[in-house]
């Protein structure tokens, strides 16, 4: 049941962006951030007070759903604020926050749960998320340019009307197509992107496969370090810090990627560093699998996880930047389709991971992941060398090729 709670939380991450991403393009980024984050804070309380597992499992799905807004909307916000040529560094910071967060939180929550019990975790989350919500509400402005234009138009018209100018009646707000457009066009956009846009479909498939490896790899840590090496739950959580170190190394390599991109300035150049980095994944998985035995010191597989963390950071960031460069103002909707596939895979794999490792053995299961990662190495090369042809077949990407603009639907 504990694994089911995690899977449903990740499943909420999958389906939440399908609603929240297009709504942020229709109503603005700020309201979606503010209201979804407030609901995330509120939903911590009933989980902390719950007296049965069914309630916890159901609420965990809702937490994932409302807490998923930053997964896609942050990419949209970056597209709002930075020109395409300069969005790489902000996306790297965003990528670092998302890859550092879970491994850094695991030791803290592991020791807190061991010392105080699991309910204290959700009271702690309530306090931290509540503080973050206040900071968000007080400091985050609207960034979606169509919403800003509508707000400025409304203020100007009201000011002229208050001063008695007849010109106030001639000032029109940008057209609002109403609820019919919202439900027929805006809310269906992520699904249409996923199934009709070659870039969204291919990056979603690749991202799903890569994150499938990530989730399966993460599930091996309690087995290898807990069962084989006899670590406690709290001690096992510390072993994930190797992934943090790897992510930091990957982030430090990002300026090399940026220098190459600024020479070429095409979306395909965003995955240039992924070409060598993708091979870090199979190498690290083979390394980890070979060291999954009591006779090998526990630090050796942790060193393998450092290599894995660096590879994942570079590869995933390259894919996300490729999507951002291709879709501009509609990055959030495209990423919603990508994240749907990624997190559906992430919700399913924890349910089968332990059975796979126990059935195949820790070493052979790790070897299988290594060969899958090696097979997936072909994808960054396809994006890099054939990305132009893929974008030509994408209606939205080809329209935005010369610069970001609104597309009539």
How much beta, percentage-wise?
Answer: under 5%
Cα-atom radius of gyration? 23 Å
**What separation lies between the terminal Cα atoms?**
44 Å
Tell me the CATH topology: Growth Hormone, Chain: A
Structural class from helices and strands? mainly alpha
Task: Tell me the helix content.
Answer: over 70%
Total beta strands? 0
What overall form do the CA principal axes indicate? globular
CATH structural architecture: Up-down Bundle
Number of helices: 20
Name the average pLDDT. Answer: 84
Number of domains: 1
CATH superfamily assignment? MFS general substrate transporter like domains
The arrangement of helices and strands along the chain is HHHHHHHHHHHHHHHHHHHH
Structure description:
The structure is a single chain. The chain is mainly α. It has a single domain, classed as Growth Hormone, Chain: A, CATH 1.20.1250.20. The chain is built from 20 helices and no strands. It is globular and about 85 Å long. 45% of the residues are buried.
Condensed summary:
Pfam families: MFS_1. The chain is an all-alpha fold and 409 residues long.
């Amino acid at each position: 049941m504990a694994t089911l709670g995690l899977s449903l939380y990740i499943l909420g991450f999958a389906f939440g962006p399908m609603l929240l991403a297009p709504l942020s393009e229709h109503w603005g980024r700020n309201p979606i951030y503010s209201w979804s984050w407030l609901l995330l804070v509120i939903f911590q309380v009933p989980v902390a007070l719950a007296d049965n597992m069914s309630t916890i499992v159901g609420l965990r799905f809702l937490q994932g759903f409302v807490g998923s807004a930053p997964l896609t909307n942050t990419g949209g916000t970056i597209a709002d604020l930075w020109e395409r040529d300069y969005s790489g560094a902000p996306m790297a910071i965003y990528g670092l926050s998302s890859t550092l967060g879970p491994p850094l939180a695991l030791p803290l929550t592991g020791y807190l749960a061991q010392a105080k019990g699991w309910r204290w975790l959700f009271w702690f989350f309530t306090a931290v998320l509540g503080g973050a919500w206040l900071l968000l509400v007080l400091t985050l402005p609207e960034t979606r340019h169509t919403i800003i234009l509508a707000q400025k138009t409304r203020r100007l018209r009201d000011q002229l009307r208050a001063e008695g100018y007849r010109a106030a009646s001639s000032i029109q707000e940008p057209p609002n197509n109403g609820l019919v457009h919202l439900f027929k066009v805006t809310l269906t956009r992520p699904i249409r992107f996923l199934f009709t846009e070659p870039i969204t479909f291919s990056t979603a498939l690749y991202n799903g496969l890569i994150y499938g490896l990530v989730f399966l790899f993460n599930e091996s840590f309690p087995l290898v370090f807990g069962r084989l090496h006899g670590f406690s739950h709290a001690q096992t959580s510390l072993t994930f810090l190797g992934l943090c170190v790897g992510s930091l190394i990957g982030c430090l390599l990002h300026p090399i990627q940026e220098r190459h991109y600024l020479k070429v300035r095409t979306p395909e150049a965003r995955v240039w560093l992924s070409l060598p980095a993708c091979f870090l994944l199979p190498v690290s998985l083979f390394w980890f699998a070979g060291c999954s035995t009591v006779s090998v010191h526990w630090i050796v597989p942790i060193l393998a996880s450092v290599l894995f963390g660096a590879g994942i950071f570079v590869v995933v960031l390259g894919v996300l930047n490729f999507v951002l460069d291709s879709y501009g103002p509609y990055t959030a909707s495209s990423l919603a389709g990508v994240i749907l596939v990624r997190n559906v895979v992430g919700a399913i794999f924890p349910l089968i991971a332990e059975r796979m490792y126990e059935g195949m053995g820790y070493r052979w299961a790790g070897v299988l992941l290594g060969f899958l990662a090696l097979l997936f190495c072909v994808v960054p090369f396809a994006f890099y060398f054939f990305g132009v042809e893929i974008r030509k077949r994408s209606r939205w990407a080809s329209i935005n090729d010369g610069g970001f603009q609104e597309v009539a639907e």
